[in-house]
């Protein structure tokens, strides 16, 4: 469905170059909202993945009982125990978090969030503020539970990415159907033409009918009318209801816990660069280069999602080659730097490349 070299070239254009006059923060400031008593690993994986991708500052908003554990995992992360949790006797609301939001280039909500009522309520308020500020927002894991309970919180929000797995997608489908927001299969394509696929570097209508699985993802994206959906699976499917991209990069034969959090963190970094690039273009309008061909019509946040999927798969492939059955999420994070350079880096000295990474380039 998607010819990946064209997408890879487009994603490379999102990556900030190295400059001797750059200062801390210009390569991205992000926050992961999640982390509870039971789940401290997930927000760490997401936040650490983002900083290993190359963002300058990676924050975590978590509950008080999770803060010390997450601080202990990495000295690179800036951890704030601002997430309220009724079970911990803390119901301070969202205000302490809201004061920070305008500082970030992108937000990830959900890894290790938990389902405490006070937590979910505060995060709902945070999402509304993020939307009003125009900050790209990635929603995963328990953040999707909030969307299931109130899909309208993301309806029409084009600066949002949802990353459900197959099970989470079914829950979202049921929620939309219960609210009457989801059309039946026979109605779905009546009012508009089918989605566009990226083939041979040009967006065209697919000559093949949508499979039932593809149609469901497109239906959900169209029902929400704005967010990009990343359906994680054997092949990752990325769509906003109008354009469909796939990520077929070879991954690992083992599916360890935490890989979805790594994907969220990698996507978070790309999304931050999209936001930074947009802010820069508002100050200095870019010249028309004509690069990218028809791929330039793919929304930048969809490119960010595709880049996140590709990075995660490539890191998993690399980690599995070393660890096999013992592979766990930190093994993926260990390879982010070298894999990123092999796939998406530009404008730096290409010496001292680790042996074996050239083969990754051949997969794009």
From TrEMBL:
Catalysis: reaction(s): (6S)-NADPHX + ATP = ADP + phosphate + NADPH + H(+); (6S)-NADHX + ATP = ADP + phosphate + NADH + H(+)
Binding residues for ATP: 232-236, 251-260
Highest taxon above the source species: Eukaryota
YjeF C-terminal domain segment(s): 7-343
Alphabetical keyword list: ATP-binding, Lyase, NAD, NADP, Nucleotide-binding, Phosphoprotein
CDD domains, sorted: YXKO-related (cd01171)
EC number: 4.2.1.93
Cofactor(s) recorded in Swiss-Prot or TrEMBL: Mg(2+)
This protein's name: ATP-dependent (S)-NAD(P)H-hydrate dehydratase
Organism: Chromera velia CCMP2878
């Amino acid at each position: 469905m998607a010819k990946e070299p064209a997408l890879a070239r487009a994603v490379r254009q999102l990556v900030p170059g190295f400059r001797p006059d750059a200062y801390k923060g210009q390569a991205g400031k992000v926050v992961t909202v999640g982390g509870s008593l039971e789940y401290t690993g997930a927000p760490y994986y997401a936040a650490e993945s983002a900083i290993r991708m190359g963002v300058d500052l990676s924050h975590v908003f978590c509950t008080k009982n999770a803060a010390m554990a997450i601080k202990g995992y990495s000295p690179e992360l800036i951890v704030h125990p601002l997430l309220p949790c009724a079970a911990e006797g803390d119901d301070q609301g969202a205000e302490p978090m809201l004061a920070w939001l305008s500082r970030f280039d992108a937000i990830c909500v959900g890894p290790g969030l938990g389902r405490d009522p006070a937590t979910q309520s505060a995060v709902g308020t945070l999402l509304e503020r993020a939307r009003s500020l125009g900050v790209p927002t990635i929603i995963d894991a328990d953040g999707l539970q909030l969307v299931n309970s109130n899909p309208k919180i993301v309806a029409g929000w084009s600066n949002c990415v949802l990353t459900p797995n197959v099970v989470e997608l079914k829950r979202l489908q049921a929620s939309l159907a219960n609210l009457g927001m989801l059309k039946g299969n026979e109605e779905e394509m009546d009012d508009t033409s089918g989605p566009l696929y990226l083939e041979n570097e040009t967006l065209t209508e697919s000559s093949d009918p949508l499979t039932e699985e593809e149609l469901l993802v497109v239906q959900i994206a169209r029902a929400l009318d704005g967010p990009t959906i990343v359906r994680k699976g054997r092949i990752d499917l990325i769509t906003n209801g109008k354009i469909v991209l796939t990520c077929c990069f070879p991954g690992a034969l083992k599916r360890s816990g935490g890989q979805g959090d790594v994907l969220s963190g990698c996507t978070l970094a790309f999304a931050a660069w999209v936001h930074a690039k947009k802010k820069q273009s508002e100050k200095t309008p870019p010249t028309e280069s004509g690069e990218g061909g028809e791929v330039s019509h793919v929304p930048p946040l969809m490119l960010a999602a595709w880049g996140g999927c590709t990075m995660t798969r490539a890191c998993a492939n690399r980690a599995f080659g070393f660890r096999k059955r013992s592979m766990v999420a930190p093994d993926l994070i260990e390879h982010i730097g070298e894999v990123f350079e092999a796939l998406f880096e530009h404008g730096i000295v290409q010496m001292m490349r680790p042996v074996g990474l050239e083969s990754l380039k051949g997969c794009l």
